[in-house]
Each structure stands twice: as C-alpha cells, then as structure tokens.
Amino acid sequence: MYVWEEEVMVERSLSTDAEFRGAYDRHVAAIRRYCQRRLPRPDVDDATAEVFLVAWRRVDRMPGGDETLLWLYGVARNVVRNQQRTARRAQRLRSRVQLASPGGEDTATQVIRRIEDQEVLDALGGLRPSDQEILRLAAWEGLKPAAIGQVLGIRPHAASMRLGRARDRLARLLQIEEQEPQTAAIPRPVSEGGER
C-alpha cells in the first residue's frame, strides 16, 4: 500500500508541475504587464514572481481554462496591493526621517502614450482606489464586466454597475459633457421665406 501511495504522489506531482508550467507559460506576460501598470519598475519582477509563487502553492485551487488568467489577476491584485502598502509605509518612514525619496519614473508614466493621456491619468488619480482599479481592469487589461467581477470577487452585474459609475465619475472629473450633434441649418428657398 505504501508503494501505491508513493506512485500516486509522483503522478500527482508530475501533473501538478505540468499544470503550473502551462499556466506560467500562457500567462506570465499578461501578469507582468498587469504589475508594470501598477508598480514602479524595480518592483515588477518581484511582484510577478510572487504571483506565481502563490499560484504554485495553491495550484490545487487554481481553475483551469479561461478562468486561470482571471484567477491570476486576482492573485496579482492582492500582491500589488501588498507591495503598494509596503511602499506607502516606507515613504512615510522616509518622510519622518527626512530622507529624499529616490528618483525614478512614476508607474503611471509608463502607461502614457500621448500627452493627452496625462489629463486622463490625473483625473484617474482623483478617483477612489476601487474606481481606479475597476477602470484599469477594463481599459488596461481589456476585461469585460463578467471577468472583472471574477477578479474582484463580485457578481458580473455588480461589476458592470461599478464600472459604469466609475466611468461616470471619471467623465465628471474630465468635465466631459454630452455634446449633441449640431445639425447644419438647411437654407430654405426665398420663395418659402428664406434669406437671400
């Protein structure tokens, strides 16, 4: 019986290794981009590695198929939040001891593609963190409300509602107004009272 248990353990280990390697190969680039958009450059590799360390430890809970990436986004979200908390604590400590903060590129700067994007990023920074994250998941990761709901651990309808409200808040910050299309006045013939 002991030999049988050992064979089962070896088989399970081999399938677990293959499952993890497959998930890593398919999704490491997407998880890296997720982290790049939210963290300073020096922290991206560590965050990506930590996401897959968590995935390895919980490989038995990792869903298969299309849900794997969404599950990994959820893990990445937690890893990024932990790193951001750590960074805020470190910044407060540096401020207390009055050390100059190190130079470097702001995380959001890595996403800017055109000068006009800065206005959007500034407005995005004025939103609550939960609104920022849901907008980033939709815009940067290209996720639909059902997938966003899965990443955030909420129902798809709730994700859709939150996304709509976050977009509305962003639009207000950007002072985007619904503009009615202007129709050109059609001149009437003079015989019908039109101008000459």
Topology:
Layout: H1 2-36, H2 41-57, H3 67-96, H4 115-125, H5 129-139, H6 145-152, H7 156-174
Helix pairs in contact: 1-2, 1-3, 2-3, 3-6, 5-7, 6-7
Structural overview:
This protein is an all-alpha fold and 196 residues long. It has two domains: 1-105, RNA polymerase sigma factor, region 2, helix turn helix motif (Rna Polymerase Sigma Factor, Chain: A); 111-176, Arc Repressor Mutant, subunit A, CATH 1.10.10.10. Helix content is 67%, strand content 0%. The chain has helices at residues 2-36, 41-57, 67-96, 115-125, 129-139, 145-152, 156-174.
How many structural domains in the coordinates?
2
Can you count the beta strands? Answer: 0
Label the overall shape.
globular
Q: Helical amount among residues, as a percent range? A: 55-70%
Give the terminus-to-terminus CA distance: 104 Å
Stretches with pLDDT under 50, minimum 5 residues: 1-5, 7-11, 98-105, 177-185
The tally of helices reads: 7
CATH architecture verdict of the largest domain: Orthogonal Bundle
Structural class: mainly alpha
Radius of gyration: 25 Å
The residue-averaged pLDDT reads 78
- Reading off the top of the CATH hierarchy, the class of the largest domain is best stated as Mainly Alpha
How would a textbook summarize the main sheet? Answer: none
- Measured by DSSP, the beta-strand proportion falls in under 5%
CATH topology of the largest domain: Rna Polymerase Sigma Factor, Chain: A
Structure keywords:
single chain, 196 residues, mainly alpha, Rna Polymerase Sigma Factor, Chain: A, Arc Repressor Mutant, subunit A, 2 domains, 7 helices, globular, disordered N terminus
